[in-house]
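Subject: for your reference before the review

Hello V.,

The reviewers asked for a structural picture of the protein, and I figured it would be easier to keep everything in one thread rather than splitting it across files. Below is the amino acid sequence we used in the manuscript, unchanged from the supplementary table.
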Amino acid sequence: MPEFDYELTVILDPGDPKTVLVSTETTSAESNEDATPEQDQHAARGRLHNLGYATGEVLEDRIKAFQSDCGLAVTGKLADIDAELKRRYAACDPPSRGPSAAK
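And here is what came back from the structure prediction:
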């Protein structure tokens, strides 16, 4: 088995069609206006994780890091990144990371 300098954990939830995170198609959670806030948060956590935002941080901190890296206003609110997060996730286009990322 080859050795790698990194490890990637991809979050999948195949048991719940409202939170499947692997498809680049619009999932029912993305198009379902009846999704609960918990379902929205679960899906966002998975997308952020898969785009490289650590699982050890609280969701608000991960949202703030994503906002900062994308050059968005840093509010920590999921509603403020929803469209950008879904767009970047579907396009497999994570933002550059770090202090100079949004410049």
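For the response letter, the relevant points are probably these. Residues 8-103 form one domain. The longest helix spans residues 37-50.

Happy to draft the paragraph if you're swamped.

O.
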